[in-house]
Design goal:
The structure is a homodimer of 338-residue chains. With 338 residues, chain A is α/β, with parallel strands linked by helices. Chain A has helices at 9-16, 20-28, 35-48, 54-61, 78-92, 107-119, 139-143, 167-180, 197-212, 228-239, 253-265, 296-311; strands at residues 65-72, 97-102, 122-127, 148-151, 161-165, 186-190, 222-224, 247-250, 272-276, 290-293, 320-323, 326-328. Chain A contains twelve helices and twelve strands. In chain A, α1 packs across α2 (20-28) and α10 (228-239) packs across α11 (253-265). The structure holds a DNA duplex (16 and 16 nucleotides). Chains A, B: Residues 7-61 form the HTH lacI-type domain. Chains A, B: This is LacI family transcriptional regulator. Chains A, B: Keywords: DNA-binding, Transcription, Transcription regulation.
Chain lengths: 338, 338
DNA sequence: GTGAAAGCGCTAACAA
DNA sequence: TTGTTAGCGCTTTCAC
């Protein structure tokens, strides 16, 4: 039972007593074919279990692979999973499949994935850039007309389409919400590395809110942690400060999870908290978690729509799409300082 | 700036003044090539930005596509996302890429995804079967030697490798845990459709535990809901029963989330709860959520290992791998009935 | 309505 | 050490 050879179009043709080209015509519903010929072809196709070879077809047609390559940092992160789902369902109806790889947030892996995708001649590239990458190496591809869209974060050193959350405005709104409830010392727990685009933008939003309210910025209130565990420890450190914050702004889903855990461990139900990115159990926490909700499926859908229009020949200017966020007050953000 | 033609191996060869075959030899590090020729080839490759065309290579080599097709029900579900991540990292070092599609739990979509993958001549197929599917249509492929592994749920009507969680034993253990804490009326909230493999297995485990303890089975305590919202409503219905349960077993992550929400809405902190599948915030809930934790990355890794060994020619008998679960007592499962 | 020949980009099997 | 020829499975082009 060693891998049996799959039947080819020629096999089908021989069996029917016609030429490969005729079979091709039937299968692609192209040009005139006698109804009875068509029927006989279909019958043999079924009997032999013939499956057209897409690789061969694409090659001959000179078409690119009917796939789009997607690079995300981490599949297990539901944020990126949902983004990927949004993309997949949007492009599927166009007959495109999605090839994914995860970069684990390293530029080396990202680049090797991109190289694999390019070698496969994918029709388009969708990339969540890794934190420290540089994307000048994609310039030639872009100029050759390959649609490339960056997601969640813009490219570095390359002018290209991108679709991102309204990070800065969302973070500003979340922080302003805390300020509106009387807080003057607000801790910030951000992602790692601190140079990460989303981290920087959200940090700017945080500072915008402070500035708008005329509040001083205290570097000592800024903490960092990439995992929930690290964020929990960060929250505990902030609370242990001599002059601790009365509220926390957690700038991503892991940070929010960690902050909740950290507050719980410290037994502090009096500290206000706003998270960036919603969590499934947010409403049943004690207190229920106030968040700045992102729209991951919307980000995926927007990126997919952009890629499809580029594939359709849209040569208009490069765009930067901001997908809006939404503040959802649930309780934890409305606590007032003691 | 219409899609410029990518340089081919022949373009490189002409530029260097050699034959395509020589370039091929350099790029594949195959056979003897004069060092200076190699250097010149590499230089031109770089200058032209040449990218080998994998489609053409695979076709000529008669090799299948260096990709494995993965069908999952839903990318946004972190359970499947983590499974996918486990697979991807395991196969990447073998130079394989993962092509994913989501079936949305429908057999039609699953089948069309599988057809796409087969047309692409993927090297192997990894499928989380949709709830109601029938997989006899894959028999020919299996017999032709294509490695096919089913995940999370076994195939229907087809003898094939599969990797699943130890659903029945895990559910038995979770339920027995509740019984050990004095509960005699335990509600079951399961997935939809009720014919779903994991739902049936976990339900069996639930009944096993009851039987072992000599407790009666009450059909009225069995509820269903696919989403967290539906599960929350189910929990509320159960609690509103004339003779309500004192404990709940929620048979998947959405059910567990929903049960937590439902109990919170009803203001019931006295009802014991055990969830199947862990949740990120389980430990900070009030009370902290006791779960039967699955090992999604382990499931992915096991499936990947199996596929790789099949690709390496392992023709031994079909296997069914059970990935163990682990009971994590945190509080909600240890509440005693009033 | 159907077929014959050529070729997509690459490599296997030879030969030189 | 390098080149030549042929062909993977399909579609294009043109002929019948």
């Amino acid at each position: 039972m060693a891998s049996a050879r799959r039947p080819t179009m020629t096999d089908v043709a021989r069996e029917v007593g016609v030429t490969a080209k005729t079979v091709s015509r039937v299968l692609n519903e192209e040009g005139p074919v006698a109804p009875e010929t068509r029927a006989r072809v279909m019958e043999v196709v079924r009997r032999l279990g013939y499956q057209p070879n897409l690789m061969a077809r694409n090659m001959r047609v000179g078409a690119r692979d009917a796939a789009i390559g997607l690079v995300i940092p981490d599949m297990g992160n539901p944020f990126f999973g949902t983004v990927a789902g949004g993309i997949e369902s949007a492009v599927r109806e166009r007959g495109l499949t999605v090839i994914v790889g995860s970069s684990s947030e390293t530029k080396e892996l990202e680049r090797s994935l991109v190289a694999t995708f390019l070698a496969r001649r994918v029709s388009a590239l969708l990339v969540v850039p890794s934190a420290t990458g540089d994307h000048r190496y994609l310039r030639a591809e872009r100029e050759a007309g390959l649609p490339i869209v960056f997601l969640d974060r813009p490219a570095m050193g390359l002018a290209a389409d991108c679709v991102v959350s309204s990070n800065r405005e969302g973070a500003r709104e979340g922080t302003a919400h805390l300020i509106a409830h009387g807080h003057r010392r607000i801790g910030f727990i951000g992602d790692l590395p601190a140079t990460l685009y989303t981290r920087r933008e959200r940090f700017q939003g945080y500072r915008d809110a402070l500035a708008q309210a005329g509040l001083p910025f205290d570097k000592g209130l800024v903490e960092t942690g990439h995992s929930a565990e690290a964020a929990a420890a960060a929250a505990e450190r902030l609370l242990a400060l001599p002059d601790p914050p009365t509220a926390l702004f957690a700038a991503n889903n892991f940070a929010a999870t960690g902050a909740v855990v950290g507050l719980a461990k410290a037994g502090r139900k009096d500290v206000a908290l706003v998270g960036y990115d919603d969590l499934p159990l947010a409403e049943v926490l004690d207190p229920p978690l106030t968040v700045v909700a992102q729209d991951p499926a919307g980000i995926g859908a927007a990126a997919a729509a952009l890629v499809l229009s580029r594939l359709d020949g849209d040569r208009s200017r490069i765009t930067k799409t901001l997908v809006p966020t939404r503040l959802i007050p649930r309780g934890s953000g409305e606590l007032r300082p003691r």
